[in-house]
Amino acid sequence: MKKIRNIRLFLIIFCLVSLPAASVSAQDGGWDTNLLDTARGADYLSEIEKDIILELNKVRTKPALYASEYIEPRKSAFSGRIYRVSGQIDLMTNEGVSAVSECLRVLGKAAAVGILRPSIALSSATSDHRNDQGETGRTGHDGSDKSSLKNRIERYGEWDIYIGENITYGPESAREVVVQLLIDDGVSSRGHRKNIMNRVFNYAGTAYGTHPLYGYMCVMDFAGAIIDR
Fold this sequence. Notes:
This protein is an alpha/beta fold. Helices cover 35% and strands 20% of the residues. It has eight helices and eight strands. The strands form two sheets. It has a five-stranded mixed beta sheet with strand order 1-6-8-7-5. Strand 3 and strand 4 form a beta hairpin. Helix 2 (47-61) packs across helix 3 (63-71), helix 2 packs across helix 7 and helix 3 (63-71) runs antiparallel to helix 4. The chain is globular and about 50 Å long. It starts with 10 loop residues before the first strand and ends with a strand.
């Protein structure tokens, strides 16, 4: 039976963080990137979109290592609720360092889950939503045409098991997109993190682009199974 896991949450970054948008190195220590870099040959994705899927696979396969390498160092950059890095715009968070600490505890105990593979159908659905919000300045999971996650995916493919969606506004690098979703500051359910670490998801699509209010945005869609039309 199909079940929709449409987490109706989204992450708005109210202060933009200026981070370099460099591609992720294929030689990151501790991971077999030849295995995890499943989207590198997908010519329908940009380099940063391919990097985002690689980052997702890194945390899914070695969550404790990902936390210690890329999330633990953030703790020292907080002054109260302000996340402050030299040369970047200060970020006012909702929870401060406590959200980072909670993320570290959860990922430190989390079991590895399977890798995600790219999907043209899911990527097409995310591109529709990115293009819509890039033009209208809207946020959230509903399109200006009243489309839902389910509607957008079903334009391009037939899905099964579960589907889910994450959206970020602000981050300028693949790693920052994924790290902020994992921390999920201000989202009590941590629904974005749960989507990333959900073992039933086997496929992902992503679309990264500009947003008129927040500078940049990223849409990620997930499915347990998907058949492209």
